[in-house]
Design goal:
Blueprint lengths: L1 H20 E2 L5 H7 L11 E9 L4 E5 L7 H8 L6 H8 L9 E9 L5 E4 L8 H13 L7 E4 L3 H8 L7 E2 L1 H5 L4 E5 L1 E10 L13 E5 L11 E4 L8 H9 L3 E4 L6 H4 L5 E6 L4 E5 L25 E2 L13 H13 L11 E3 L1 H8 L5 H9 L6 H17 L4 H10 L7 E8 L15 E5 L7 H10 L4 H9 L9 E7 L4 E8 L11 E7 L14 E7 L9 E7 L12 H22 L7 E8 L4 E9 L3
Parallel strand pairs: 5-6, 6-7, 9-10, 10-11, 11-12
Antiparallel strand pairs: 1-3, 2-3, 2-4, 4-5, 8-12, 9-13, 13-14, 15-16, 16-19, 17-18, 17-19, 20-21, 20-24, 21-22, 22-23, 24-25
Helix pairs in contact: 12-13, 13-15
């Protein structure tokens, strides 16, 4: 009798727990809230999600607690008695046919604070259209959402079906989501500081205190030395603001309604704690101490001025980082890798060694200005420092370049097919493991034989950018010895005919412990890392869901499409697949060259060029996350 009672009790407890974990319908928002969790991917901020599963055999719908049960597979095995392993589950239930499928799997997403509801499948789910529509309508009919429900097109296959008008359900692309996003985690984390508000224009003459968390009315070109930053415009995830923020390890967020938020405005000039998470942020007055930053040792930079010849990068220079800089050295590695892997590199790549920069700034019209800056007691004056930096830049541009260098360049390129050449910074203080220097220095174009865009002018502009406000301040912040900064110049053909350009990070930055590369790409030569206001680039994660190597196993998960390309994909499926294969091979090869940097992702810049849409890789460096 006791055993029977115990069995009944156990069954009652199990039934009660199960009832708390899943339901067959969502009659109102309160029911949705009880089961909501965060999406598995952090590709969008401010999204809440409930996982959905439809059992094809039993014809039953399940909405389950997405905070407690993270994966569809976990729900199938723990609650529905599914007995196959994960590979079988994936192969059967993400296939392009109903045959052998046990379940339909989806996510019911909601943009917080709106009436926008989005039904989404995994990007790797190749569910045929009839099943998609059937599943969509099952969700629509078993929830309170009704006509507000839309189907999200998150992969190229679905976008193409929609373009061909094959769907009879309402479909949306990423712009439908982006237009409603008010908040975005840029760099997660927390900090304590005095909350202050500045206009971008004011930063030209004012220097925020290092104990402040600041609110800005736009995106700064130069990151002030502060505890945290709130901007009022959304960011691309691989922009220079993001990369420099990650390097600084300070919390940064975008909040488009910051000006209207009276609760935050009431906190101005008070000590606050700011905490930034993927789907929300917290800011409140606090009595916590503002942590002090300990000044580390000055980071000494290596300068080898013994090399006085142009360096042809078609051969890997030995210890070239010491006399041509990381960017040029890495280009030599790329050229070597391109002989084994099918991608192109910028033609006619050479490097101007540090020697010529060092010689140039020793000019009596330049060196005293640098010495005055570095020895000055007025470094806390933004106005004085910026004026002195401008004097240095102007002096560098005014004095003539050693004519021998110009002769050597013209000789090196006399038989080149190209007349336009790009002159790019390659200092000893960028593209390093602990200091990426993203966007700090300038690149310029010089045209062979041109009287205006001369090689000499381009070189001097690049050299002068050593003393940009942003580059100088970032080095100060990281304790880099300004006495030892040196500028090499990477020179190669320029790309006036690029069809698209972009950045690849060889990891899935939106989902931890999940495969993939993250790609941001934009039309033409419009910038991905410093976009104009209102521009949205194409952004996706690419991966082989089943570790396959052929195109049919390849999956794309879009976060956004370029609004400069009518929200249509910029790259073909084959080009995306090629990007994945090439970038992962470059990552592996660079590990071997760098040695010390194994098992870290890399940051790759690429272009699509010409009628044949050739893939060019123009840069690789460590990704500091």
């Amino acid at each position: 009798m006791k055993k029977y009672i115990y069995s009944l009790f156990f069954l009652f407890v199990l039934t009660t727990l199960s009832a708390q974990r899943f339901v067959s319908s969502l009659p109102n928002y309160e029911a949705y809230k009880a089961f909501r969790g965060k999406p598995l991917s952090d590709k969008f901020s401010n999204i809440e999600s409930v996982k959905v599963m439809y059992d094809l055999r039993k014809q039953k719908m399940y909405y389950f607690n997405s905070s407690l049960i993270l994966l569809h597979y976990d729900f199938a095995t723990n609650y529905l008695g599914y007995s196959q392993d994960l590979d079988v589950f994936n192969n059967r239930n993400y296939s392009n046919t109903e045959k052998d499928r046990d379940f339909l799997l989806g996510n019911l997403n909601h943009i917080k604070g709106t009436e926008k509801w989005i039904f989404e499948l995994a990007a790797s789910d190749h569910m045929p259209i009839p099943l998609v529509e059937r599943f969509f309508n099952l969700v629509k009919n078993s929830t309170f959402i009704g006509q507000n429900l839309k189907f999200y097109l998150n992969n190229p296959e679905m976008m193409e079906w929609s373009r061909q008008d094959k769907f009879s359900i309402p479909c949306v692309k990423s712009d439908y989501i982006f237009n409603e996003i008010k908040y975005q985690e840029v760099v997660g984390g927390s900090n304590v500081g005095i909350l202050k508000k500045y206009k971008i224009k004011e930063l030209e003459t004012l220097k925020p205190n290092s104990d402040e968390i600041i609110i800005l009315d736009g995106t700064p070109d130069i990151l002030p030395n502060v505890r945290g930053i709130i901007v009022n415009e959304l960011q691309t995830p691989l922009s220079h603001l993001v990369l420099l923020g990650k390097n600084r390890k300070i919390p940064i967020m975008a909040y488009t309604d910051i000006e209207k938020d009276n609760n935050i405005n009431k906190l101005l000039s008070k000590k606050v704690e700011l905490k930034i998470e993927v789907d929300t942020f917290f800011i409140k007055e606090t009595t916590k101490k503002i942590p002090t930053k300990s000044a580390g040792k000055k980071k000494k930079l290596v300068i080898d001025n013994s090399v006085t010849e142009l360096v042809n990068l078609s051969e890997i220079p030995k210890k070239g980082i010491n006399y041509i800089g990381s960017k040029a050295q890495n280009m030599a590695y790329l050229i070597a890798i391109s002989k084994e892997i099918p991608f192109k590199v910028p033609e006619n790549a050479h490097a101007i060694p540090f020697y010529y920069y060092t010689k140039h700034i020793q000019n009596p019209a330049i060196s005293p200005l640098i010495a005055e800056l570095l020895a000055s007691s007025q470094k806390d004056s933004t106005v004085w420092v910026n004026k002195q930096l401008k004097k240095i830049r102007d002096a560098i541009k005014k004095e003539p370049v050693d004519p021998e260098l110009i002769s050597k360049l013209k000789m090196a390129f006399k038989d080149a097919k190209f007349k336009n050449f790009r002159f790019r910074s390659s200092t000893n203080a960028e593209d390093l493991d602990d200091f990426n220097g993203a966007g700090l220095y300038d690149s310029k174009t010089g045209i062979l034989g041109d009287s205006i865009k001369t090689f000499e002018k381009a070189i001097k502009q690049v050299w002068a950018s050593v003393w940009n406000e942003g580059s100088y301040n970032e080095r100060e912040l990281f304790g880099i010895d300004q006495q030892n900064i040196a500028m090499g110049v990477l020179v190669h053909r320029s790309f006036p005919d690029e069809l698209a350009n972009g950045v690849i990070i060889t990891k899935n930055i939106f989902r931890e412990n999940f495969p993939g590369i993250t790609v941001n790409v934009q039309k033409g030569e419009n910038s991905v890392v410093k976009p104009e206001k209102g521009e949205i680039c194409e952004q996706f994660v690419a991966y082989h869901f089943n570790d396959g190597k052929d195109e049919t196993d390849f999956d794309i998960d879009y976060t956004s499409n370029s609004n400069l390309n009518n929200n249509e994909p910029l790259l073909t499926r084959k080009e995306m697949s090629n990007l994945y294969e090439v970038s992962k091979k470059i990552e592996t090869k660079m590990y071997r060259y760098w040695r010390k940097n194994q098992f870290h992702p890399v940051d790759i810049e690429f272009k699509i060029v010409g009628e044949k849409r050739d893939l060019y890789i123009k840069q690789v460096r460590p990704f500091n996350d």
